[in-house]
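Entry 14. Structure prediction run on the chain below.
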Amino acid sequence: MNKPPLASPLVQADRDGVLVLGASGLIGAALLRQLHTAGVHIHAASRSAQPAPELAGLATWRLGPDFDLYANPQAAAAGWPACATVLSAGPLDALAAWLERDGAPALRRLVAIGSTSVATKQDSPEAGERVLARTLQHAEQRIIAHCRRHGIAWTILRPTLVWGEGRDRNLTLIAAMARRRRWLAVPGFATGCRQPIRNTEVARAMILAWRQPAANGHCLDLPGGQILTYLEMVRRLVAVAAPDCRVITLPASASRLALSAARRLRLLDGARAAIIERMAQDLQFDGGPAQRLLGFVAAGFQPVAGDFPPT
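Output returned:
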């Protein structure tokens, strides 16, 4: 796995430090740790009253509702640090609104996390997922337009299925379900391709994008380093998270009939049904551009038991 050192003239050049948004989230927390290890002066914003204890000493924090990207930023205009670099692991639409309201007048370099959902959920049968895809697409367009107007170098990274530290809302939920049961049923049609990527890998890619001028002006898909079926992904994580749980593959045709009946009888809401149906969809993305422009090569999906701590 390619892991170049983090220290660089670009990192050292930001004498006023960098501002990390979404710093207490799954990706943001990993980003804080890596930047701190590299000796970067970090400013972090959170609407929480206090950061998590393990993150508190890694950054200079701006805390409370005045630093909520969704809130009115004028109330905290004087409190935001004048950083030339912003690394955003928070919601993309909130970042767009914050920038448009002049939330970062000193900004010259922006790396932001989006999502491959901008493509995978455009044609979803579930209205809420189509709204999410449009929201992401519109947010990207607004951020790019703002950066071009103001001469800001920008990069948007779109990771695939992000997991890690028992904090994600996808694989960790499957692990928790497997621990509660002696068996876990998976539809036989769950053969769609997946490329899960660990949160620490996404954080590393953000730093590489910041360091690499060639990444400026690009939206880059960020898949994990291994393609596997949804069923194989589940089997692999259950084997380490709940080894006593048996994964049972249900016949594909019967699974589809049962899903159709559950939707018709309203035993499943549209969002949950869409998640199950998408198990058959290939969600596969090209990591080549990120590899060429960032020198980023993601690891394969090899979880260990500690990745899914009991809740």
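Residues 1-12 have pLDDT under 50 and may be disordered.
Filed with the rest of this week's runs.
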